[in-house]
Amino acid sequence: MFAWLEKHPFFFAVFLFIVIAYAGVVEILPSFADSARPLKDTRPYTVLELTGRQIYISNSCNACHSQQIRPFKSETDRYGEYSKSGEYAYHRPFLWGSKRTGPDLMRVGNYRTTDWHDHHMRDPESVVPGSVMPAYPHMYNKTADIETGYAEALTVKKAFNVPYDKEGMPKLGSWEEAKAAAMEEAKAIVEGMKSEDVKKAFENGEIKEIVALIAYLNSLK
Amino acid sequence: MRPGNVISYDYTVAKYFLFTTIIFGVIGMLVGVIISFQLAYPDLNYIAGQYSAFSRLRPLHTNAVVYGFMLSGIFSTWYYVGQRVLKVSMAESKFLMTIGKLHFILYVIAVLLAVVTLLMGITSSKEYAELQWPIDILIVVVWVLWGVSIFGLIGIRREKTLYISLWYYIATFLGIAMLYLFNNMAIPTRLLTGMGDWWHAVSMYAGTNDALVQWWWGHNAVAFVFTVGILAQVYYFLPKESGQAVFSYKLSLFSFWSLMFVYLWAGGHHLIYSTVPDWVQTMGSVFSVVLILPSWGSGINMLLTMRGEWNQLRESPLIKFMIWATTFYMFSTLEGPILSIKSVNALAHFTDWIPGHVHDGTLGWVGFMTIAALYHMTPRIFKREIYSKKLMETQFWIQTIGLVMFFTSMWVAGITQGMMWRATDEFGSLAYTFMDTVNALIKYYWIRAIGGFLYLVGFIMFAYNMYKSFTTGRVLDAEPRNASPMAA
């Protein structure tokens, strides 16, 4: 049969494709609906958190930090309770990472504060001596793109029925409402920060990237 | 074909891709060397503001090397090997010539766009699939063009039977096409809401599902670019260069079809102890071990092709590159399954052992085989002798030393890191902080960086040797039959 296939490229390609695709059908499809169910206390991100998440992605923080705690004592002692599938139901994309050059961040919101992140992003060595992480000064200058954050929230609400505006869930509302809510949320973070520039910018109605990023990091619990 | 009626193959497109293989190789490896030094010496993060932070350069490094260097190499060899094993010249078809050139141009545009967007921080965050949707669409077009080129050339072939290398090229094409499409499914937010950034898109899958699809891709991009595409090369170039027939057709058959069947199951080994279902993790683990068979099948087939001719290893640096590549392939495909065993994975996952493993595969297997393929093609494409055999020999040893420094230091680093993370004192509390592990690794990061630097030095010697061959190498009056001619 194989010798025959080698003389008939069309059938060769078709047969080959079936052989390759088979594994995906068997391995991926069955668990799909199952793993998409959110855990009881899991909620979608607010617009500001989502914006922060985009900044996290844009700077490839996931290249060095994982967000997946394995069920080992050494990991639960260090980072907190191990990860469950339902906790990730609103994570698009997933950010588990594949390498820990820095520690896991899945529950970093439980043990780090706004103030700590503020220092850490400006000068990692000031809070973690010997850290090999670079500083991210540009996050203090660039304005966060909360419009794209809102666009993403609206997209997942429309396309995947993510339960924004449902009871007990974050409110999305119109763009104006969402913007006001993001400002409100940002205010609490800005107050916890040292930087005068960030504060001044906020008074002018601008949210800096660092503020959104900290909102996101604080939400990781 | 009648004797005396020689086809003159058209290597225009092969030549274009040969140049980009070298150029993107130098760039990708240079970025790799920079980021490896950044880990040992973090101040290097600031050489170009936010654009030179490790986190921006790391995806640029992987993309430049995988899609810039390795894929270019695969395309270049395709436009060379394809014609020869099908006994048909591209010059015979205007259409295929146009497709080939278009394929090249759009490919280069896609790579350049990738560089710019990744530096700007426009990324989907999925490893080895970081590019955002407009570039993804362009890549699909590039891929389709390559498919047209493959099947177009097959359509007008004179040789009835598809040679082994062609199986692998077809598999690279089909495998990546399927995986890439599914993994990159995303909704551009601007299109749906009319707001926000044009580049931004949101993944079709969430959480655990997204991880499953991503590693189904991530692992198998390794399969169909790093493995299958390079096997296509070794199956053609090693027999050609050594003048020996492939050891066993049956073994080729067995290793090809079993590789195709088994490879995709193994993706789950990236997700051991994660939240994907246990049975997926176990399958990933078991099939990874099974994968040793087809991988070693090809490896043994290649090594036995040299039977009775091992003296060539001493005489020709080109054969050395190919045999070393095959050896590293076998080595790396043994290491992978070991890493997939649950208890080993528990220790090694998230540590530096993983980049170590990736690099003994990519630098040893892919890098060496691509270099060998380009060396073999040069005298035939440019009709010139390779400029310097001595330089080639030196390059081989420098790169080998660099490579060994790279993966051994990363093994030690990874195991150290894994052991320190889990170590406890007599009261059962953690013995080390995370920073203790970072401090312990710095010395290994230095060794790795120097190893990577040596590999780059060797690659630059390669680029120089190639350049000299194109321009000043002795002109050949006839095509060499097997062993590539090289000056002293």
Detailed description of the structure:
The complex is a heterodimer of chains A (221) and B (488). With 221 residues, chain A is mainly α. Chain A has one domain: Cytochrome c-like domain (Cytochrome Bc1 Complex, Chain D, domain 2), CATH 1.10.760. Chain A is 52% helix and 0% strand. Chain A is globular, with a radius of gyration of 22 Å. Chain B has one domain (11-190, 200-472): Cytochrome c oxidase-like, subunit I domain (Cytochrome C Oxidase, Chain A, Up-down Bundle), CATH 1.20.210.10. In chain B, 72% of the residues lie in helices and 1% in strands. In chain B, strands 1-2 form a two-stranded antiparallel ribbon. In chain B, 58% of the residues are buried. At the A-B interface, helix 2, helix 3, helix 4, helix 5 and helix 9 of A face helix 2, helix 5, helix 6, helix 7 and helix 8 of B.
Order of neighbouring strands in the sheet with most strands of chain B: 1-2
Specify which chain pair forms the largest interface. Answer: A-B, 84 and 89 residues
Oligomerization category of the chains in this entry: heterodimer
Mean pLDDT of chain A: 93
Structural class of chain B: mainly alpha
State the fourth-level CATH superfamily of chain A. Cytochrome c-like domain
Task: Output the structural class of chain A.
Answer: mainly alpha
Q: Categorize the overall geometry of chain B.
A: globular
How much strand of chain A?
A: under 5%
Instruction: Extract low-pLDDT stretches of chain B.
Output: none
- Residue share in helix of chain A: 40-55%
CATH C-level of chain A: Mainly Alpha
What name does CATH use for the topology of chain B? Cytochrome C Oxidase, Chain A
**Cα shape of chain A:** globular
Protein name (chain A): Cytochrome-c oxidase, cbb3-type subunit II
Organism (chain A): Campylobacter corcagiensis
Transmembrane segments (chain A): 12-33
GO molecular function, one term (chain A): heme binding
